[in-house]
Amino acid sequence: MFIMVDVEADGPIPGKYSMIELGAVAVESSLDRTFHAKLRPISDEYDPEALAVTGYKREQVLSFDDPKEVMNNFEEWINETSPKHPIFISDNNGFDWMFVCWYFHTFLGRNPFGYSSQNLNSLYKGLTKNIFGTFKHLRRTPHDHNPVNDAKGNVEALLTLIEEYGLEY
User: Which domain CATH number covers 121?
Assistant: First the structure.
């Protein structure tokens, strides 16, 4: 099963900066199997502009949940949602995958998604044969930097592509 993931972070790379919010949605029409967590920073460094995108203040994120506990909970949710072969997909897997993979390996020593991820935007570009195309007009849920909402909008876009292009799923 595909699991759409979205990450909010306080900087451009994991380790030096922190993933502060994580959302995931099972790719199915109900959009009701979701995961959401807020993670306490792992570093004293942060980019104020990146943090501002999330709408949180630094004082707020310092009280968020323990990252190891969050990643444990996320792994449990993934295993319940897709016990055989979960497939990570996001609209910008270069960014989202980087944080999720790093956090899983750093805090749990493993990644339930394995070693690869999928990119929704690349799929759209291939299907439309437009290297500059974007799928964002296919979202119905507003993109507001709440990672669950953003992932839901991306699931809506993916489901539209599956239907319109007759993709096997």
Answer: 3.30.420.10
Active-site amino acid positions = 145
Q: What is the pLDDT of residue 169?
A: 83
Structure token digits, residue 122: 């690349």
Residues 128 and 131: their CA atoms lie apart, in Å, by 8
Per-residue pLDDT, 1: 96
What is the domain extent for residue 80?
2-165
Q: Can you tell me the distance from the alpha carbon of 38 to that of 80, in angstroms, rounded to the nearest whole number?
A: 20
CA 13, CA 46: separation in Å to the nearest integer? 10
Q: What domain count does the chain have?
A: 1
Residue 6 near residue 150, CB atoms below 8 Å: yes
Q: Which whole-number Å values give the CA distances from 100 to 83, 94, 114, 138, 143, in the listed order?
A: 18, 10, 11, 25, 20
Q: Is residue 48 within 8 Å of 61, Cβ to Cβ?
A: no
Residues of the chain with pLDDT under 50: none
Write down the pTM of the prediction.
Answer: 0.97
